[in-house]
Amino acid sequence: MNTDWRSHLVTGASTALVLVDIQNSFFHPAGSNYYEAATEIVPNLHRLLRRARASDRLVVHVSEQHRPDVEDFEYAKLPEHCIVGSHDAAFFKGFGPAGNSNEFLIDKRRMSAFFATDLDLLLREKSISRLVIAGVKANVCVRATVQDAFSLGYRCLVPRQAVNSNRPHLADAALEDIDRYMGWAVTLAEAEDALS
């Protein structure tokens, strides 16, 4: 099995950056899902975002948003979080769409950024075939997004230094699964290179 992501490049392929759930809920100390280790990846997320913007790459800002008047099915397993309009649901400082034509917002109500959203349609309209996917949590929303992306035919790169979890052993297992079955777990430098 060839694990080098460069050998799987499609001629003329275009790459997008997908940032998953960079929201106060996970990154702000007052967030309902905050964990201290999340802040460790913030500088690396900024690096990816700067590189994507400098290279005029498409950037997708994925935001978990739950309706205030709906008893969401996720609450069967998780406490209420990221309610539309709340501090929890807002983007963490320095993240979110910059207002230019290459940055898009995708709101989701489930773990995968593809489930019941128009993300796949958007990417196909923009002729995107390769994704750099980063954010939180490696073993939950990042993994679910990568799995759906792979099933839809996208080549997925996940920079190890730009994802993590409050359960490090599960983040490690998720990255191993991604690298073995669904994409490529790469270094931050390789992800930046892919966005260049």
Automatic annotation (TrEMBL):
The keyword Hydrolase applies. InterPro entries: Isochorismatase-like_dom (IPR000868), Isochorismatase-like_hydrls (IPR050272), Isochorismatase-like_sf (IPR036380). CDD domains: cysteine_hydrolases (cd00431). Keywords: Hydrolase. It comes from the Bacteria. The keyword Hydrolase applies. It holds the Pfam family Isochorismatase. GO terms for molecular function: hydrolase activity. Coiled coil: none annotated. Residues 15-189 form the Isochorismatase-like domain. This is Cysteine hydrolase.
